[in-house]
C-alpha cells in the first residue's frame, strides 16, 4: 500500500483537518515542530509518519491521535 494506501489517506486526513482548523502548512509545521517540507510530503502521502509525528500533528491540530487514525481507518477500502 505504500504511496497509494495508508500514507495517502493519512495525508488527506491531515490536510482536511488542517484546513478545518484554518491554518497553513507552515503554521502546522511550526506548531508540531516539524519542517514545512515534511508536512507537505506527509499531506501528499510521500512519507510514513512515526507515532511521535502523529502525536505532534494531532496536538498541533487540536485533536487526538484517535481521531486522525479513526478517520484513516474509516476510509480504508473494505475487502
TrEMBL record:
Gene3D superfamilies, A to Z: lambda repressor-like DNA-binding domains
GO MF entry, a single one: DNA binding
Superkingdom classification of source: Bacteria
UniProt entry keywords in alphabetical sequence: DNA-binding
Record's GO cellular component terms: cytosol
Domain HTH cro/C1-type: start-end pairs: 14-68
PANTHER family in alphabetical order: HTH-TYPE TRANSCRIPTIONAL REGULATOR (PTHR46797), METHYLPHOSPHONATE SYNTHASE (PTHR46797:SF1)
Protein name, as recorded: Helix-turn-helix transcriptional regulator
Species name: Polyangium jinanense
Amino acid at each position: 500500500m505504500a504511496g497509494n494506501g495508508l500514507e495517502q489517506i493519512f495525508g488527506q486526513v491531515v490536510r482536511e483537518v488542517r484546513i478545518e482548523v484554518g491554518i497553513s502548512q507552515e503554521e502546522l509545521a511550526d506548531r508540531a515542530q516539524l519542517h514545512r517540507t515534511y508536512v507537505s510530503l506527509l499531506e501528499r502521502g510521500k512519507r510514513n509518519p512515526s507515532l511521535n509525528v502523529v502525536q505532534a500533528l494531532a496536538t498541533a491540530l487540536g485533536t487526538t491521535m484517535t481521531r486522525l487514525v479513526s478517520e484513516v481507518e474509516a476510509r480504508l477500502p473494505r475487502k
